[in-house]
Amino acid sequence: MEEGAGAEKEPLLPARTAGRGRSPRATFGADTCAASAASCTVQDVAGFDHDLYINQALVFIEDAIQYRSINHRLDSKSLWLYRWYYSRICQWVLSFTITLILALAFIETPSSLTVTSDVRYRGKAWEPPCGVTETIELLCFLVFIADVSVKSYLIGWEEFRKTKWLLAYILILLVSLIDWTVSLSFSCTETIRIRRILRPFFLLQNSSMMKKTLKCINSTLPEMASVVLLLAVHLCLFTMFGMLLFARTKDKQQEKEWVGYFHNLPDSLTSLLVLLTTANNPDVMIPAYSKNRAYSIFFILFTVLGNLFLMNLLTAIIYNQFRGYLLKSFQSSLFRRRLGIRAAFEVLCNLKENPLNTHELFVSANILLQVLQKVEMDSCCKQAILKELQSCPRGILSAAQFQKLFDELDRDSVKQHPPKPEYQSPFLQKVQFVFGHHFFGYLGNVVALANIISICVILVMDADKQPSERDDYFLGAINCFFILYYLLEMLLKILAMGFKRYLSYPSNRFDGLLTGILLVLEVSTFAVYGFPHPGWRPEMMGLLSLWDMVRLANMLIVFRFLRIIPNMKFMALVASTLMDLVKNLRAFAGMLVVVFYAFAITGIVLFKGAIVPKGNTSVVNATSGNSTLQCGTYEQLDYWPNNFDDFAAALVILWDVMVVNNWQVFLDAFSRYSSPWSKVYFVAWWLISSVIWVNLFVALLLENFIHKWDRHCHRQSLSEIEYQTTVELMFRDVLEEPTEEELMEKLHQHPYLQLCR
């Protein structure tokens, strides 16, 4: 009876004794259903229950907006804790903590706090005393412990046991704390710190999109492995052919190819692997090509089959497979959104006001209005939903109407511009028409182009002049004229469009900001150096010389010329695609941060101090008879700043290898300075960064551009209405809606939710 009473008091919650992992279906006996049905009448709903239902629906809707799982506790205290955990301040603290613990790598031993990373000139870096960074780490660990504790409590023991990410979270924290204790016991003198390489996990587990991306990459690996295996076969076959073709002979000219690139199996594999990326082309074939032009066929055939066919085939497979698995992931996200909305509907069904039909499930529009007023969501989206809600017939919504009401969440974010001001004066109306016309914008573009041309002409004329011979009068006068025009143009546009409408256009905000900066810079120039006049060449004064200030103004003017992009339809399409990529690349950028961080820490452990200058390392002309350094080597190219002696330097060298330009230099240098097995590390990094991640980026770029391209024809001009999309919305048109049966089955499996039917 006590359980039945508890169920009547909070019908959406299981009894406390049955809540420990028991399925809610186990409590769906006849008595329980009768009690639940009785609790669904408005006469039995107490004020406490009313607030509970409102808060439950509120959380379910917010879960749907953020694509979160609804499998969490639903009592009043847990709901408060849940909303507090996902509040902006709490998530900001968590994000700051993750950023802080990752940033510790820059100041920990070996510290990156030096002006240069060049091993020949780098001074002794400042090292924090033992306990400083460790204290910061401990504070971060305490935040992470609180984070995992709150998450574990909110989802409950049964869900916790099924969540591998939370189990891994606890394991990573445990290992990190043990390693932290070991560091203190050794007075921070240990060389290997396991917890440093584990830190990227904290970033990874905090992003659902990054988890989806990682899962998609993991699912795509089997298909990628088949092409990589084919690449390996291609590489091995041509390596054997090359070793046979360029074997050691008595011919000194042909022997150069053997000595330089095909001396043994590891060198042959490395040479052709680098050729696969075209980084050493045509250097690798020059010795043989000098002997006989027919040898070029071998290298051309290898490059065509490997680089043009197999590598591009790998790109196509990654795009196709990744898009398919990402589509499945977004299908799951859509199901979460629909499930959250349906759960909110089922909860609010308990708050019927004057039901017309006791067998009909519906939600009162007034009750939903109370919920929406508390929901944290995009203001434009909320206004659109409220507008639809006000036009609801009879003031009630069925399940289908309720779900359709929240379809606004699945649409591209549309930004409408404020209306123009309405002037009564005929003169102002004519001014508004003239300066609000798009031809006035075209005139501004022509003026900006003229400004660029004038700057280019003056720069070409003064290119070979010494600073003492240069006359800045013309450039200063031209800048003054154009800046005044830009100021006048901005004021006239504000008059014609109104201040709010003017600021609603990103291109106008861009113009206005640069015009303001240029005006301040020009006034400062006049205040310090006076007005332009012939022979205007003051000496260096203050923070910036006149030439520095003029150059800065010119750079801003050149940058301002980008204003033409919105006026060119296809260029605007490309620019908007790039802007959307910047907004939606957080997950992909986060994945890149994770692999960069992990490989950088691993590289420091493996190669710290490996690069050591030997003797006189000054660069000698490789063509002279006194040359002591082989042309194209690490030493001759002065690559000394590229090393793994600190975290910042490690990031730079990893970037250089990812770009694959001259990466054979690093393969050779680290195999000589450390071990030939170092090539495994660099090849693994090339595969992960340049082959996998870059191709994933290409896949997202293609999908984003295709999405924009398919829609730009039947939409209004991008300058009139701005459409903002997300990665999820790019796949919205091909996703399948979940059925009623699927939603209800999932709701019945909820560990804390009891339905009234």
TrEMBL record:
Residues 1-24 are annotated as: Disordered. GO terms for biological process: calcium-mediated signaling; endocytosis involved in viral entry into host cell. Keywords: Calcium, Calcium channel, Calcium transport, Endosome, Glycoprotein, Ion channel, Ion transport, Lysosome, Membrane, Repeat, Transmembrane, Transmembrane helix, Transport, Voltage-gated channel. Residues 95-322, 449-705 form the Ion transport domain. It is found in: Late endosome membrane; Lysosome membrane. Belongs to the calcium channel alpha-1 subunit (TC 1.A.1.11) family. Two pore calcium channel subfamily. Its main location: membrane. It catalyses: Na(+)(in) = Na(+)(out); Ca(2+)(in) = Ca(2+)(out). It is a multi-pass membrane protein. One of its GO terms (molecular function) is calcium channel activity. One of its GO terms (cellular component) is lysosomal membrane. It comes from the Eukaryota. This is Two pore channel protein 2. It comes from Pelusios castaneus. InterPro entries: Ion_trans_dom, TPC2, Volt_channel_dom_sf. The chain crosses the membrane at residues 89-107, 166-186, 224-246, 297-319, 439-461, 473-492, 513-532, 552-575, 587-607, 680-702. Residues 1-11 have a biased composition (Basic and acidic residues).
